[in-house]
Amino acid sequence: MDLDAHLAISHTYAIYARAIDEKRFAEWYDLFTDDARYWIPLTRGQPDGDHHTSLMYEDKLDRK
After folding, report:
1. Contact 57/46 with Cβ under 8 angstroms?
2. CA distance 55 to 51
3. Could you tell me if 37 and 57 are in contact, meaning their C-beta atoms sit under 8 angstroms apart?
4. 38-56 pLDDT, tens per residue?
5. pTM listed for this prediction
6. Residues forming beta bridges with residue 40, ordered by sequence position
7. Cβ proximity of 46 and 54 under 8 Å
8. CA separation for the pair 16, 28 (Å, rounded)
9. Can you spell out the DSSP letters for 23-51?
10. Rounded CA gap, 64 and 3, in Å?
């Protein structure tokens, strides 16, 4: 990954984290794309959330 891509990703995560920290949930929600998934695997090394039980596996519609 080149430096420009790394900086762009870091900047995006900073905006995302700040919105959560400041409880600006509508703004945070708007950062999700329609194909985004919020996934917390149940076990280490879990290959996906589609075919395995997860702690959380939600799409944008579930988050509102």
Report:
1. no
2. 13
3. yes
4. 899 999 999 999 999 999 9
5. 0.58
6. 56
7. yes
8. 6
9. T-HHHHHHTS-TT-EEEEESSTT---SSS
10. 34
Instruction: Tell me which amino acid residue 22 is.
Output: E
User: Rounded CA gap, 55 and 64, in Å?
Assistant: 18
What pLDDT score does 15 carry? Answer: 94
* Diameter of the chain measured on Cα atoms: 36
Question: Both tokens of residue 42?
Answer: 């149940």
**14-39 per-position pLDDT tens digit:** 999 999 999 999 998 888 888 888 89
User: What are the Cα distances from residue 25, in Å, to 13, 19, 54?
Assistant: 15, 7, 23
Helix (H) or strand (E) holding 56: strand 54-59
Q: Which residues pair with 48 in a beta bridge?
A: none
